[in-house]
Amino acid sequence: MFAAPCGPPGQPIIDSVSPNSITLHWDKPSYIGSGEMQGYIVAMKPTGGDWKVVNVDPVREPKMVVQDLKELQEYQFAVKAINQAGPGAPSTASRPVVAAGWSADNSKVLD
After folding, report:
1. Number of structural domains found in the chain
2. What is the CATH number of the domain that holds 81?
3. Residue 20 and residue 72: Cα distance in Å, rounded?
4. What is the pLDDT of residue 35?
5. Nearest-5° angle of CA 26, CA 28, CA 33?
6. Is residue 96 part of a domain?
7. C-alpha span between 21 and 24 (Å, rounded)
8. 77 or 84: which carries more pLDDT confidence?
9. Of 8, 10, 78, whose CA–CA distance to 44 is shortest?
10. pTM of the prediction?
11. Domain that holds residue 24
């Protein structure tokens, strides 16, 4: 029997930013493919750099805090959902965001 991978999750949305971490969330994929969802893998890319997987073990919920970022570096994030068929198609990349003191609630730099 053929195992179908998940469809792409929603584009990652940035919830909050600090100099060394970014909190993001995304919508679950509309198509989960074959079998039970096992979680999500998040990838990040610094501007001008290459995509790198952030988490080796899938996260179960459609949200994550990405830590150990370089302050004032600009990043983008993408997500893949995983089921028994393996990783599905990637989400659309997030909008670029700079690791600095900022919050989505007030869209201002924090002191």
Report:
1. 1
2. 2.60.40.10
3. 9
4. 80
5. 145
6. yes
7. 10
8. 77
9. 78
10. 0.87
11. 13-101
